[in-house]
Amino acid sequence: MRVNFTVNGRPQEADDVWEGESLLYVLRERMGLPGSKNACEQGECGSCTVRLDGVPVCSCLVAAGQAEGREVVTVEGLADYAQHREDAHPGGACGTGGCGTGLDEAKRWQAKPAQDSQTGEGIELSPIQQAFIDAGAVQCGFCTPGLLVAADEMLERNPSPTDADIREALSGNLCRCTGYEKILDAVRLAAARQERQGEAV
Amino acid sequence: MAQNTRTAPVGTPTDVTQNHVKGGIGESTLRPDGTLKVTGEFAYSSDMWHEDMLWGQILRSTVAHAEIVSIDTTEALTMDGVYAVLTHEDLPAAKNYGMEFQDTPVLAYGKVRHHGEPVALVAADHPETARRAAAKIKVEYRELPVITDEASALAPDAILVHENRDDHHSGHVPHPNIVHRQPIIRGNADEAAERADVIVKGEYTFGMQDQAFLGPESGLAVPAEDGGVDLYVATQWLHSDLKQIAPCLGLPEEKVRMTMAGVGGAFGGREDISMQILASILALRTGKPVKMVYNRYESFFGHVHRHPAKLYYEHGATKDGKLTHMKCKIVLDGGAYASSTASVVGNASSLSVGPYVIDDVEIEAIGLYTNNPPCGAMRGFGAVQACFAYEAQMDKLAAKLGMDPVELRQLNAMEQGTIMPTGQVVDSPAPVAELLRRVKARPMPPERQWETAGEGADVRALPGGLSNTSHGEGVVRGVGYAVGIKNVGFSEGFDDYSTAKIRIEVINGEAVATVHTAMAEVGQGGVTIHAQIARTELGVQQVTIHPADTQVGSAGSTSAGRQTYMTGGAIKNSCELVREKVLEIGRRKFGSYHPAWANAELLLEGGKVVTDGGEALASIADVLENEVVEIEEEWRHRPTQAFDLVTGQGDGHVQYAFAAHRAVVEVDTELGLVKVIELACAQDVGKAVNPLSVVGQIQGGTTQGLGVAVMEEIIVDPKTAKVRNPSFTDYLIPTILDTPTIPVDYLELADPNAPYGVRGIGEAPTLSSTPAVLAAIRAATGLELNKTPVRPEALTGTL
Known about the structure:
Chain A: This is (2Fe-2S)-binding protein. The structure holds two protein chains of two kinds. By secondary structure, chain A is α+β, with helices and mostly antiparallel strands.
């Protein structure tokens, strides 16, 4: 079957999709967007978390056909989504359709070098992405994309979360490396920075 | 020649690590792969993609112990989209592999020995086609009785798991179902026991833990024009894999070119081969690139686990608290194949006393062959199980003596100069008493944190959390302590070395260093530290970390807390040699201009050659101009010895690491639910090369210890030896709600024998975390609790 949907603000169509394929499989193997991770593929670990019409879901549990006509945001589009949050939400990462990764581009996906990995100089990162780097919340990083999408969505809903709020919001995302302390630090840091930015505006 | 045939797939790590990190030794430099990891662009092994690639799928045995009567692949072969269906008959060369013993079949032949053993192999154009084809393969089994424990393994008429052993331990073990036995006898435990005023005995059971790394076993094998294969895979030790893979493919090692793909955690679970050989065989057979990715269910069968153990301990002490003697027997279940069981046995026995001074000991550790899932390396490697038992014994002894449990430990704590039960002198700092003091001195977390002003209880802070099972009634608090000792690096005479190739050249007018090693970055942050070392040693700002591959010598395994010590040491050593070369060139070019070139101690700093007085003589760029200096050298730590097979004596270990924990828990005694409130750690790290990473490693290790204390266990049916819970639904690892705050206090007491004084970090916190939580639960409930994990039924008496 053919599935038409929007990924990171860009309309996409996937052909020859088998009915049983998950949204996760289509994103990773057909769209060339491997940022959403395949850790358990049964909705237990949260590594494949994406936003479907703004709502965080485990993309491994969404049949690809269910995404028909809908808006998907993956970790690859997170920075862009955060930048356009005000005008794009709900239901679209990019109002103009000019953002995100095009299909041809996506299929040629390569792991690219960063210009300066420390500061993210030259690369637009969302506040939560930057905070994960700064707080040391990334170790092996396999859980990171899902945690980022979930944390970003929580901060959108709840800009000043308590620790209990953060723990509750991220309880569906397993991490085996960090012991979660630095993930908490990162979310607190992102919230604080956003608050400061808000005050400045 | 080899390079010419190489075909790089999309997502090759070649691009990944050309990032620049700033900061030298001792700074909290950020990860060079951080940006790629937060943007989803980091290429993990399961992200590899190649035009025209096929998907590999394994058919695994549904029974634990059986003769294979027949395998029928006819129907699978006729399916559309299927390119190959293989059994052991199709294997090109050696049929077995293994790290220490070559006892593991690539694909089962004759027999299967555990549930989930690979039996057949499929390659197809879609993963679902491959799965369906595998399901069409018909295997007829004739089931055999299963060996699942010490009694069934060592019964006089026991079936042998491996009938014809000829490994290096088979000659001395008392029974062929014992992989290895290591006694340690020092002093006279029986005589010393007569001096004891109190004696405590205990039997402890440690459950089977899984590494549960998040990135599944996966990789991509690409057939090459020269008949070889290029393999992109997540592993802990490329060269160990290579040694095992090449004979099974019937290829010389130079035709198996391995590149490290992004690793999603390891914790010991990637030390053994998983899909490497199978994907390569499929690629060579079909002539197409083959990707293999285990799903989570398969991952539970696809790697070895932590050895479950039974531990029998006896300790004695005088009434003033001095330990008189210790006797113990440790039985580790190695499962169907040896993996690293023999080394785990060596560790468990040599570290069974813990970080205490006891002159008279009688120790025996054995590792069994059974039909349970194979067990091998996991963070803590044999020391974890022992720590669980000896720390429970310390509490028991303290209770019997009416002493404070921390004081008892401090009274008997080892220190620099202590003699281990193996006769080895501990010749670097061993701040055991101090670590305990630090966790004890920390302020306690406030009581009844769930109480909120005027609004009743915040149930999220209570045991049971959001399930709203309690509002504080029946909740009791307990506090527990533990401390542990772990060896660092490979022991018992193993030729443990690492290799580093360092290059320095001028690019765009600036001196740039490249660090090329085969070290597996599994998340621990080695790539960060390697650049810090090169930057410090060579005085350059720009350092590129070359992707890890087999085009450079072995770095050894990313395990045993050894990589900062070993590959860090290799980089330091190679950098020093590079520095000498640079200075040689400088002397040649500029030596006549300034006497300091000949007379002074010269350093490389801030891109310049400087004297020890701080005078800059020339920029490194001017010294080098178009010259390139490149050196590849192996580097070794001081040698160790094998333990004597009768007495266990020998200088077997390189270095020791120490960590202590204080756990504060709250238990809902009605429902048997545990909430860990705080799990504070104090650890000696020798030198914190990167403080941010140090704390992250300690918190991560602590959490894995917490997991095994209260929830983690692979459950194997004792009647059938089948695994009951191979999923994240049923095998539970701690979530952010299960994990408390983990304050970390680290000491930096340099080990004079280690580069920069470093001490392995990643493993020690996994040891003491578990017994500290158990001690706290015992303190809260008054129950004995001699088994991990503590399940609700053990707390409510409904077992």
